[in-house]
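Re: Re: ligand-bound prediction request (bumping)

Still looking for help on this. To restate: I need the protein modeled with flavin-adenine dinucleotide bound, output as structure tokens. Inputs repeated here so nobody has to scroll up.
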Amino acid sequence: MIKNIVVVGGGTSGWMSAAYLQAALGANVNVTVVESKRIQTIGVGEATFSTVRHFFEYLGLSEHEWMPACNATYKLGIRFENWRHQGHAFYHPFERLRIVDGFPLTDWWLKQQPGERFDHDVFLMATMCDAQRSPRHMDGTLFEQDFVEAPAGVTERSTLSEQKTQFPYAYHFDAALLARFLTKYATDRGARQIEDDVVDVALDERGWIRHLVTKEHGEIAGDLFIDCTGFRGLLLNQKLGEPFISYQDTLPNDSAVALRVPVDMEKRLMRPCTTATAQDAGWIWTIPLFGRIGTGYVYAGDYISPEEAERTLREFVGPEAEDLEANHIRMRIGRSRNSWVNNCVAVGLSSGFVEPLESTGIFFIQNAVEQLVKHFPDGDWDPGLRDSYNKAIAHAMDGVREFLVVHYLAAARADNDYWRDAKTRPLPDGLAERVEQWRSKLPTEQTIYPRYHGFEAYSYHAMLLGLGGIPLKPAPALSLMDGSLAAKELQTVQDQARALVQSLPSQYEYLAQMH
Ligand code: FAD
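Reply:
Sorry for the wait, this slipped through. Here it is.
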């Protein structure tokens, strides 16, 4: 059996991998993490996807244990500002659509047009975000939804594939604090931490990794090596020569500049969502943590310079940005052709990355470690396990790439070359046909990217209705059907949203109590 697992890299992916493998396989494996003290982690990556709940539950961690330690806040969705035109905003929440007479509420909304804002009319969370509500009452109970939580103290270990209902929120957290928290979690359970630089990787005659060569700790041998070295891809790309497939032709944003802005959360607006504000050559993220805001401009280097991007970001933040040091990052957009080659599996940025518009970096890590456990090799290294793993990883990333391309293609904004070019760039295979279908009928699970990539049809509805650049129409059958039930349901959403705003505490109140 595979006994010795060596993780190279101590960023979010390195410690998430070590903690998860330790939780899943326990004392049956030895996990060693080698991390450089000299080479910095990427230092961003603070908004997550609602499925991250499975990760913390699998580790047996309650929100009270890890959230205060990581300055975490709640995220009910993403607020998109200025993607249609200046001053426009809409939400893409973690909320499935209600169905009336076999049609999603968005279809009925297109037919009945009860208000200006589809997001406020069909989702509860748009209103909750605007009102800065917490998704939990002060006694800790979750606001009412179709999701049923396990009773307090009962841990249910589930993975992404068992997700049947939509969990209503994700988190924002300080990535460095999370890595530190998971370091303690993993080392308390037996993982070994070595702070050193890997200076070489020795291969055997078959081209499999035999051992790492470190600066101060000599050779470190293992059976399975996890490459968590970030954009470098030290083991998989550099040593094993696995090619990287760039997505740059379809997603041109290749750079970012980031700031960490300390703020007083009590005085400041603290919407429970990430905000993505469209700019002349990309977009700016705003991530509210407990005690500071993480913000950054993701942009295409072909359209503006790093200096212009930094200037725009500083103007966007205002006086609070003075004296703060900006972190400039070059992004490698795309994925390794295969993330698992021989006895090396890349997880995190070394495996692949798309711009963080839908906060999928950590979702990719979670998907990778879960899939790795599901495909964990035996001593024979059955190639079928590896091939099946590689397909699952590639599909998830290709699917997310496609969803992000839709963001730019469908954005009504076309006021400069950057936004106009987004409408004429080559599309990933199959997308043009899918978009044509959506013009006739709102996306269904059958007409979106066909493999698991974390997004369901409702997310496509939210984006297409919000972005406004692709004409949509209701199903013709709705003209022949009685719409009174749908009208009632649309009214129910309004009533429920209003009641929730009344009864739920603000996110700040809830988190202040937790801290
Ligand atoms: P890194 O953080 O780069 O860590 C690499 C590790 O490898 C470090 O510990 C380093 O010391 C070590 N290392 C490298 N070389 C050696 C060596 N020779 N010897 C020993 N150790 C070595 N994801 C989200 O989910 N949500 C977001 O909002 C989000 N925003 C992002 C914004 C930007 C601009 C970028 C670029 C990414 C964002 N991500 C986001 C992605 C997220 O940051 C990453 O998925 C996550 O941080 C994982 O990074 P990593 O651990 O793979 O790499």
